[in-house]
Design a protein that fits this description.
By secondary structure, the protein is α+β, with helices and mostly antiparallel strands. 56% of the residues lie in helices and 9% in strands. It contains 22 helices and 14 strands. The strands form 4 sheets. A 5-stranded antiparallel sheet has the order 1-12-4-8-7, with no helix packed on it. A 4-stranded antiparallel sheet has the order 3-9-5-6, with no helix packed on it. The longest helix is centred in the C-terminal third of the chain and has 31 residues. The chain starts with a helix and ends with a helix.
Length: 681
């Protein structure tokens, strides 16, 4: 009976959340779009009397409506007609203006199957017609009959999501992703049976299961996000392919153009990557005709053939790319199959990061117990974690290594330094430095921890153990990262990003400039601080980013949802601050471990700000993104556990922990369906 009582909060909230999601999917009115026009409809186009016909790349199945754009008050075509090879022409009734600039023509009947050669004809009366378009072509969108709900639209969405999935998944991508999402929900709710037990110990099994939840969430995104619609995914794949094909690193001192392998270029063209990225109103190809042509082209091209080309990933260390390269080499297949393998590697690494977040919260927060599970699941289900974790991106390995680095630091600070812990810490530090430059932001915190260990060794007359542990960490770090870093410096490759070829020095930034920009970036512009981020600020960059600004940062959660989550997170943060204050008052000093974690977060903030300011001074914008906070995600998990720990009654902690997790599951699921809608609806 006592176990049933512990399960009740999570189960009850989960049932309410699932019912709410199903009702929302049933009540929502998804569009019946079958083909979106390439045209923006930016300028008026005049059409003379008579029939004006325009070719289409394909006439999708079950087309019923033809939508055109027209200025308010303009003369319109009297009707439209669609025709295709092997199909009787189908006419329409007069157009109906649905919005100030949109007019819809309903065909006499659906078009039935898909046709590869087709056209749309505008029937224009005396006096002509004016539509919006480009050149001499109108902006045309074809639609099917509207679906009754998102649930009834799932078969069509699954078919669209199956395009460009390689030989492994095909049309099963979306159904499999939904199964993984459901499994993540069930496993998370099972773990919440103990999330409110502050006196219980969180075992290794719980740590692993939370990691599995994180990996499942990321894998669901990996199966559905179209190829190369995640930030810089193409250049990360290119780096890994170069390692796999030529066992060489990309150059960083010579601009060789933006060349790619033959299959990669075919995939970019076939998926219309450049047209879809940064354009929320555009979609990847959906038709079977285009899908078959694309697959035939890939089969005709040889695998491999990676080309050395300078990109914004070229200067990064190779550890993550080496892991992906080995897995892709073993898996083989087309570029799309290798892309999926790399994405699943990232999903696994983010699962390891989620497990590390639980382990860190367990170590860092005294008597957190099961509340650490809530903190770990909070991290595992963030929409931005799912989206980036479902793409090829070195942030995956950085997040995993950073989380477990913080775990070892917490154990050293709480339980004392040993040779084994020193070696483990050094190996993780070396791996982090060999993965991505941003990991170096944690080194100041590690240095502070080393000073604490040595000081405690002097006071406790165990200086030998302390020195041995610190030296072991330094040696292990040098063994792992030293070869690459030394070679990078001696060969002229360098260990920091710089423009290729010119050899010119970048902008010189003072520490004062960096500190001021850091304040603006994380606290907002106020008083005498110059506004270097016009039109943007902390809420827009960090809060909206963490709650789910996805794709090429071109779509995200509704503003009201962002503010609701912000208020919820703000309350948790306030409770965590109360927890730190109580600990300081009880000890009559600031907890040294809290200082170490604050230095870690501060070091990361300074590095992000300095890189962002460097880019802005150099003329580039948009560097700052929420994913750069992943190295301290585990500290966020500990903050959740610490905040929940401040609630006075166990039953309150039960319900609050359940609320955190179910809220996170709903948020992550909403981000998933938002992604499906962005690309396939």
């Amino acid at each position: 009976m006592s176990r049933l009582k512990r399960v009740a909060p999570a189960t009850a909230l989960a049932v309410v959340a699932v019912v709410g999601i199903l009702l929302a999917l049933l009540a929502a009115d998804p569009p019946g779009v079958t083909l979106r026009s390439d045209l923006r409809g930016a300028a008026p186009v005049e059409f003379p009397k008579g029939q004006n016909c325009f070719g289409l790349p394909v006439l999708p199945s079950d087309t019923r409506l033809v939508r055109v754009q027209a200025p308010a008050g303009a003369k319109l075509p009297t009707s439209v007609q669609v025709a295709a090879q092997g199909m009787e022409p189908i006419g329409s009734a007069a157009g109906q203006r649905r919005e100030p600039d949109r007019v819809e023509y309903r065909l006499a009947r659906p078009t039935g199957g898909e046709y590869a050669v087709a056209q749309v004809c505008l029937n224009v009366a005396v006096g002509g017609a004016t539509l919006l378009g480009e050149g001499e072509r109108p902006a045309v969108t074809l639609l099917g009959d509207p679906h009754a709900s998102w649930l009834s639209a799932l078969p069509a969405l699954a078919e669209r999501a199956g395009f460009g999935r390689g030989t492994v998944l095909g049309r099963g991508a979306l159904p499999l992703a939904l199964l993984l999402l459901g499994a993540a929900w069930l496993l998370a709710i099972r773990e919440m049976s103990g999330a409110g037990r502050s006196a219980d110990r969180v075992g290794r099994g719980s740590v692993v299961r939370v990691g599995v939840v994180g990996a499942l969430f990321c894998a669901a995104f990996a199966l559905t996000t179209p190829a190369f619609q995640a930030p810089d995914e193409m250049v990360h794949l290119q780096y890994a392919e170069l390692l796999a094909d030529q066992q060489a690193l990309p150059r960083t001192t010579e601009n060789l153009g933006n060349a790619t392998s033959p299959q990669a270029q075919a995939a970019i063209n076939g998926m219309q990557t450049g047209r879809v990225a940064f354009s929320p109103d555009r979609r990847p190809p959906w038709s079977q005709t285009e899908d078959r042509a694309f697959e035939a082209q890939l089969k005709a091209l040889p695998a491999g053939g990676a080309v050395d080309s300078f990109t914004n990933a070229s200067s990064q260390p190779p550890a993550y790319y080496a892991v992906v390269a080995v897995a892709q080499k073993a898996a083989g297949g087309s570029i799309l199959d290798r892309l999926l393998v790399g994405r699943l590697i990232s999903a696994l690494l983010f699962g390891i990061a989620a497990a590390g977040a639980v382990a860190f919260a367990r170590e860092a927060v005294p008597r957190a117990g099961g509340l650490a599970i809530a903190g770990g699941l909070f991290v595992a289900t963030l929409p931005i974690v799912g989206f980036i974790g479902g793409s090829i991106n070195p942030d995956a390995l950085v997040a995993a290594v950073s989380a477990w680095t913080l775990v070892i630091l917490a154990r050293i600070l709480r339980q004392g330094a040993t040779l084994r812990r020193g070696v483990a810490l050094g190996l993780l530090l070396g791996l982090g430095l060999a993965t991505k430059l941003i990991f170096a932001a944690l080194l100041p915190a590690v240095a502070v921890a080393a000073v604490v260990v040595l000081a405690r060794g002097v006071r406790g007359r165990e200086i030998g153990t302390a020195v041995t542990s610190v030296l072991a960490a330094a040696v292990a770090m040098a063994v792992v990262a030293g070869p690459y870093l030394g070679w990078a410096v001696l060969s002229g490759r360098g260990i920091a990003f710089a423009p290729p070829g010119s050899g010119a020095a970048g902008p010189v930034l003072s520490m004062r400039e960096t500190l001021v920009y850091t304040v603006e970036l994380f606290a907002g512009q106020f008083g005498p601080i110059a506004d270097r981020i016009p039109g943007s600020g902390p809420w827009d960059i960090w809060l909206a980013g963490l709650t789910g600004r996805m794709g090429w940062v071109d779509y995200g959660m509704p503003v009201r949802w962002v503010y609701a989550i912000g208020a919820f997170w703000g309350l948790l943060a306030l409770l965590a601050v109360v927890g730190v204050a109580r600990s300081a008052r009880a000890r009559r000093t600031v907890p040294i471990d809290a200082v170490v974690y604050a230095v870690a977060a501060g070091g990361l903030a300074l590095m992000i700000a300095r890189a962002g300011l460097y880019n802005r001074v150099a003329g580039a914008t948009g560097f700052e993104q929420a994913r750069y906070l992943f190295p301290v995600a585990a500290i966020g998990a500990a903050g959740v556990a610490l905040g929940l720990r401040q609630l006075p009654r166990p039953v309150w902690r039960d319900w609050a922990a359940a609320t955190v997790v179910v809220f996170g599951l709903v948020d992550g699921t909403a981000g998933f369906f938002l992604t499906v809608g962005r690309y396939f609806a």
